Amino acid sequence: MGEKVVSDGFDLSARHRYRRKLKDCLEAFRVLLDEGRFERPRNLMGLEIELNLADADGMPRMMNTEVLRRIGSRDFQTELGQFNLEVNIVPHRLAGRVFDQLAEELRTGLGYADRQAQEEGAGIVMIGILPTLTDEDLVSSNLTEVDRYTLLNDQIMASRGEEVVLDIEGVERLTRRSASIAPEAACTSVQLHLQVTPERFADVWNASQAVSAVQIAMGANSPFLFGRELWRESRIPLFLQATDTRPDELRAQGVRPRTWFGERWIGSVQDLFEENLRYFPSLLPICDDEDPHSVLRAGGTPGLPELVLHNGTVYRWNRPVYAVSGGVPHLRVENRVLPAGPTVTDVLANTALYYGLVRSLADEPRPVWSRLPFGAASANFEVACRYGIEAELTWPRPGRPGGLATVPAVRLVQEELLPMAAAGLEAWGVERGDRERCLGVIEERCRRRVNGASWQASAYHRAVEAGLDREKALAAVTRRYCELARTGEPVHTWPTWS
Fold this sequence. Notes:
Blueprint: H1 12-34, E1 44-54, H2 64-71, E2 76-78, E3 84-93, H3 98-118, E4 123-125, H4 147-160, E5 164-169, E6 173-178, E7 190-196, H5 198-219, E8 224-225, E9 228-229, H6 235-242, H7 248-252, E10 259-260, H8 269-279, H9 292-297, H10 305-311, E11 315-316, E12 318-325, E13 328-335, H11 344-363, H12 374-387, E14 392-396, E15 404-408, H13 409-428, H14 432-448, H15 452-465, H16 470-485
Parallel strand pairs: 10-11
Antiparallel strand pairs: 1-3, 1-4, 1-7, 2-3, 5-6, 7-13, 8-9, 12-13, 14-15
Helix pairs in contact: 1-8, 1-10, 2-3, 3-11, 5-11, 5-12, 11-13, 11-14, 13-14, 15-16
């Protein structure tokens, strides 16, 4: 049972008890590691996609409850904003024609959901940030009416003690203040899961961190927010600022933000859970009745609910996940870097690039993180978010010990990383035709220097040149984006403006 919430938040006894339970969970987690209790690898991958609801004019519709009622499937769930949904795909074995199978499932499921949404006067849009969102849309009254969203909002705002401040400078500059975390709802992403063993976890997480910049450079799809052209992946700074629990004085003292790239390569999954406990105070100090040590002594597997809850409020771009299935614990790396969309083809191309690169990099005898300073990986991530497919990234020189070079992301991908991704997918057992179809999309993006963000920005500027004002241009771009996305053709083939 949970602790009772008092009028001014959680009382001190609840927070002390929660922190003790967190420490107990971490000790039990170490026991599970030491005893080798974790499930052996089955090469399972998972996929979640966050979605927007918009009408025929490209305007957001606050009606996820009505649309979900029509869809009537547990695969679709609410998200933070009333204009958001999320679709969860059942885990698949990363082998054979997995991407072909996923494409069929996603097109069928999303097509059905879109038809049901249209019955309510809306449609499904896969995009990182809907360009037509306004200040009036991202307010607390438009948060989904679910207790956990309300509680999360209340606790983040109480921790800050002041309004959320958005200040993002890119092509243009945006400054806004918000009395809630509602701006976070603008961010719609793809989450990729990979089940790993404890022994393999650090290598896979480090590889995921190293390739995060590459993922963004190739897949950016969020250039606009509140009518301003900002970063090519504006979702990243928006999410960081909208969930920041630190008032100004704590930021000045170097306290870490809850949305975090990290600050070092790791040697074990324990490093991440220990950092969570050390650096981040509890947002939702709700204690379960489970005594993890008693469960272990009885030969059972503890669910570690406090560890899981706390981990869920630390928004790493690559996050560790502990879960129990069939009485057996397992670990996953959750990759949270990518924006949604533009099409199923594009999403699966991004997915294939990630899983292929992670496998190859994790298998290397001299891994990239032994040659690339963590600070360079972090800087790459920001540069990719700012400039997207035009980014230049720092990467170890092939065949030169200790050497680093700064190269265009498209060249790095074409000349070095695409062959590595293909080899990684082959090592997973993905059929040749399947991997070539997906990676061919990435190759064409590089050749044409087009991804979702660059298409949106180019279309917007052409609309303005044609005489539309800012608001009408963004609406027109959104409508055209939705039309082209429904064809299913990948974004690099889309005409810029017509």
